Amino acid sequence: MQKVRVLIVDDHHQARERMRAILDEDSLFEIVAEAPNGLNAIQKTEQILPDLILMAVDKCRADDLDATRAIKLKFPFVKIVWITAADDITHFFEALKNGAQGYLVKHYSAETWLEYLRAIVLDDEPMPREFAARILNSFFYAGDSRDDDTPLTPREKELLCLVADGLANRDIAEKLIISEHTVKNHLKNILQKLHLDNRVQLARYAFERGYCYA
User: Which residue in 171, 156, 174 sits closest to 211, CA to CA?
Assistant: First the structure.
């Protein structure tokens, strides 16, 4: 499997070292560069074109938000995950609003980091259940709040809920009695219809519209 080339962005050397130590535990990830701030991150991205950027973000620093938007505008294929100090679900939606694919909290375990990042960069990796639960708990929708204008078919909605529940493609295929290839095709169609990038955003979409419940 081709390695995921990672750029780490944080103004603290020790924080960058911790992120490096976590990613070194998984051979999928290869750290190709580090940057101390958003402006330098833009320059590094232009030079090396990483697959994934881990960007420490403080919403009080405008350059962090500007860097995220600038990178996604010029290099939409580069995935960005915000790294924050506070466990606040609003960071998740703020990240998506600014073009990032998600967020991680610094004090999360290395296992959670790696599971989440795999879910971001690989199509067939499930999103960690704790993230699905955290997103779900941030909404309070009743059953009649569902969006009847959704472009998804009933089958696609069913598959969407299984993704949001943290199931991998293989498990979804077994549950729906279809092939993994069919699951991947469904997911591709769903992402295209909803103009979303990954399974994390699919989970948010599902919970936000009341399709899935814990």
Answer: 156
